[in-house]
Amino acid sequence: xxxxxGIMTFGEITEDPVTGTRPSPRQRAREVIELAEVADxxxxxxxxxxxxxxxDFVGSAPTILLAAAAEKTERIRLTSSVTVxxxxxxxxxxxxxxxxxxxxxxxxxxxxxxxxxTESFPLFGYxxxxxxxxxxxxxxxxxxxxxQNPLTWRGRLRPELVAADISPRADGDTIPIWVGVGGSxxxxxxxxxxxxxxxxxxxxxxxxxxxxxxxxxxxxAVRAGHDxxxxxxxxxxxxxxxxxxxxxRDVMYPYFAKGMKDNNxxxxxxxxxxxxxxxxxxxxxxxxxxxxxxxxxxxxLAYHEVFxxxxxxxxxxxxxxxxxxxxxxxxxxxxxVAPVVRREIASRERKTA
Amino acid sequence: xxxxxxxxxVGAPAAGPGAGAALRVVVxxxxxxxxxxxxxxxxxxxxxxxxxxxxxxxxxxxxxxxxGFTGAVERDDVTPDVEAALRMAEQADLLIAxxxxxxxxxxxxxxxxxxxxxxxxxxxxxxxxxATGGSDHHALALEHALRPLFGFFQAMxxxxxxxxxxxxxxGTLLLNPRVYGRIEMSLRDVxxxxxxxxxxxxxxx
Lengths: 353, 205
Prior knowledge:
The complex is a heterodimer of chains A (353) and B (205). With 353 residues, chain A is α/β, with parallel strands linked by helices. In chain A, 45% of the residues lie in helices and 17% in strands. In chain A, α3 (90-103) crosses α5 (131-147) and α10 crosses α11. Chain B has one domain: 3-Layer(aba) Sandwich (Rossmann fold). Helix content of chain B is 34%, strand content 21%. The radius of gyration of chain B is 16 Å and the shape is globular. The two termini of chain B are 29 Å apart. The chains are: A alpha/beta (353), B alpha/beta (205).
């Protein structure tokens, strides 16, 4: 499998902890499209937009942002990261992504997930009590829609579909559907059983954090009769590619610490991520993809070695990174990091083939 | 031997009442290893403590106290260096009881140290419980084994105890952000108490 490298964003609308200014939603919406454009020009493979239903993110409707990005890009694949499928209508999800697929000439992808935020459940009238079953059933329907048209399908949580004509169809043969997995064993096992590609989210912690998750996923795939070597695994992690090791950390830290304080609560309160903890998370054995181009290359190769991943999607703007610094990092990732990683992994795979 | 590392005071400058005083922190280390995850976790605790108040750090490595310790049945049997280590623990402002979980509990050597501690020496003493284990299955050893030990001594254990498992480290460097968060919470809960109890003399210029 050719190794793919991409970026993702949540479209943060947060106060800049350095300058004290806050981008307007209009500005951030335009900037999201610009990120896609620059990522495409820099030769990156994937552009992702996360779904969040809150005032501090502009990404409540990622499909619309992806459609706009489709018009400004040529080659880059366009994915949700993630679609909170549990509170979505899979018919609508398919229609929207199939439309993006047509607009982009076959570049649409879906990462279906449970989401790490739960705001969308009350918004769309879903009960959190049904969390697990909602996801299972909606994923089943989404896969059925992808497989055949017209479709007759019956589930428990929505009225049945009888010979339903769901269109448009994909531009090419199909639209890739990945499953976003945060690390729970059951989620890895069910994804493996379905033989679906797995997008692993890694916030912080050791680089090897998901070793067991990947092992369970592959074992489950084998039991269900899938060839694990054909199943792509992606790591979706935070990071920042700087000019130098020190510059990368200095630029990323204040924003990442702010993002963590705003989003990662203990006893209902945001906790400051101290710089020394950030430094530990940036060290060679930890998962954060921050550093000089060479450091990020080394870490991506380490991820590949540990998990056999075939894709990495890096979130570089968490906490409201200013556009200028974000774009500079995207260019470094596309021009200085990605070609080396692709080449190195291709040669590794030739050796083992 | 005790590593009575009464190093220069570190930590946030003292201000207000008690200025000039430093918290005397004594670690009783139950790990047999020179380089251990247990001490990596304790280092993370000190990293957080630095942001709260000045302190002096000392440490007793129970596995390195030697025959003067292991051969002692009663307090009167110990050699002078072991007596000094016991006194240091008894006189701490904050005692950090840090140990790996062995065979479902703290190691015998760690218990032996506390068997020699005076019965009333730890009464009302602030004690922070810190443990490491091979996996998260051992986490409640803190609550089911370590806390009752200090309950016997009528010590004042810090409400949030700290646990980390092998997978949380790269070598001895703690990487799990949740554990860092717990350390932060644990010490913030008792920050006022720590300031009130700081008694050591600040020897930094």
